[in-house]
Write a structure and sequence with these properties.
This protein has 14 helices and 23 strands. By secondary structure, it is of the alpha/beta class. Strands 1, 2, 3, 5, 13, 14 and 15 form a 7-stranded mixed β-sheet that branches. The protein has a 6-stranded mixed β-sheet with strand order 18-19-17-16-22-23, with helices on both faces. Strands 4-7 form a two-stranded antiparallel ribbon. The radius of gyration is 22 Å and the shape is globular.
Length: 444
């Protein structure tokens, strides 16, 4: 049996799965927690990765591996390969002003055309501009910029600061993939070119945008093709890795025409597409996927917490909420819940609040309120589907994942709200499984 390892280094934790390369079956697994916060020392990720690998039985019998990870986080290194300051994560919003500044300088339409993105505080380019403006001494020391999965891959291959690694601080050995590069704000899918064998000819980086953000040029990870690989200190195959959403798409086996709807604390809607998208409004982020295609993505602020809130009001658990919702007729007797409990990003209504309308003596029942909560939450995610459709992204099947997908009511009501067939894959560590699938593919 040939074994491969897949890693998901997420915001909350590190998950490791070791699978049979041929069948994909999980042989063993491990996990470790990450510290909370929006600013984290990358060293804690490295410790958690080693802990999770140990819990999974180590890598002595592993032939290839790959790391998937949270997107956008800013890891800045000096010339000796040392981390200059704690990483700013995707959910750190202090760079919102920097995003506005970049849009004012370049224009939303030009930025969307060049990179597929209109800057928001999540993206790496805005965090680099924040660093330049607020910590200029740190910015001046930056010799290389990496993302979380790039940096962990580099460390696990044996690179790092002198005295802390077997292979030393070779910054040019940083690698990444198209999916994670596409979330930086200084990479262009049109400028990334590979030959017929898949070997990269041009890396796709927009150095002018990088310099505008950081104040100077820097080493950036080499963007590998989907089937390219390098080696670690033990000679194992190392796949390019992926951003978390692209890893999840690999893990659930999403193909062209599929849209993945993830219902967690917030919601994400992303589709596998043969062509890139350009949305100057910024609603749809034009990411790439990990398999040579594109992954246009929409994020919503309100998802599973909508169900949490209404379950609390009704004094039931999630199974109880589901039972009540399924006891009501479609449309909830005219009761409608607008689910903007935390404002909303799609549509862009940051100051909006939730509301219930259509309340009459007849419609206002526990069952209808539960049904309205499920339909309202799904309609909010449906706005993401509509945004993708408006850009011509083909949507034929929805794959429902995340904690909210475990609700029977959500599963049964979603097809009517989304207007398409819905499948619910078995619960799993999709990002780690996607990374393992990528590792197996480079062996082939």
């Amino acid at each position: 049996m040939t074994l491969v390892m897949g890693v998901d280094s997420s915001t909350q934790s590190c998950k490791v799965v070791i699978t049979d390369a041929e069948t994909g079956a999980i042989v063993r697994e491990g996990r470790a927690l990450h510290p909370a916060g929006t600013e984290v020392d990358p060293g804690s990720w490295w410790e958690a990765l080693q802990e999770a690998i140990a819990a999974a039985g180590g890598t002595e019998d592993v032939t290839a591996w790959s790391i998937g990870g949270q997107q956008h986080g800013m890891v800045v290194l000096d010339a000796e390969g040392r981390v200059i300051r704690p990483a700013l994560l995707w959910n750190d919003t202090r760079s919102a002003g920097a995003a506005s500044d970049l849009i004012a300088e370049f224009g939303a339409e030009d930025l969307a055309r060049r990179t597929g993105l209109v800057p928001v505080a999540s993206f790496t380019i805005t965090k680099l501009r924040w660093l330049r403006d607020h910590e200029p001494a740190s910015a001046a020391r930056v010799a290389a910029v990496a993302l979380p999965h790039d940096w962990l891959t580099w460390r696990l291959r044996g690179f790092g600061p002198m005295g802390e690694s077997a292979r030393g601080p070779v910054l040019e050995e940083l690698i990444t993939d198209r999916s994670d590069a596409s979330g930086t704000g200084y990479w262009s899918p049109d400028a990334w070119v590979a030959d017929a064998a898949g070997k990269v000819i041009t890396d796709g980086y927009d150095r002018d945008l990088l310099t505008a953000a950081l104040g100077h040029d820097a080493v950036l990870p080499r963007v590998l093709g989907p089937r390219e690989w390098v080696t670690d200190a033990g000679g194992r195959h190392v796949a390019p890795g992926a951003g978390d959403n692209a890893g999840a798409a690999l893990g659930v086996g999403a193909g062209t025409g599929d849209v993945v709807v993830s219902i967690g604390t917030s919601g994400t809607v992303f589709a596998v597409s043969d062509r890139r998208t350009i949305d100057p409004s910024g609603t749809v982020a034009g990411f790439a996927d990990a398999d040579g295609h594109f992954l246009p993505l929409v994020a919503t602020l309100n998802a599973a917490r909508v169900l949490d809130a209404i379950a609390g009001v009704l004094g039931v658990d999630h199974d109880g909420l589901s039972g009540l919702a399924l006891a009501a007729d479609p449309g909830a007797g005219g009761l409608t819940l607008v689910p903007y409990f935390e404002g909303e990003r799609t549509p862009n209504l940051p100051d909006a609040t939730a509301s219930v309308t259509g309340m009459t003596l007849r419609s206002t029942t526990r069952e209808n309120l539960a049904r309205a909560a499920v339909e309202g939450m799904l309609s909010g995610l449906g706005a993401g589907l509509d945004a993708l459709r408006a850009l011509g992204v083909p949507l034929q099947r929805a794959l429902l994942i995340g904690g909210g997908a475990q609700s029977e009511a959500v599963r049964k009501i979603a097809p009517a709200v989304f207007g398409m067939p819905v499948e619910v894959p078995a619960p799993g560590e999709y990002v780690a499984l996607g990374a393992a699938r990528q590792a197996a593919s480079v062996l082939a």
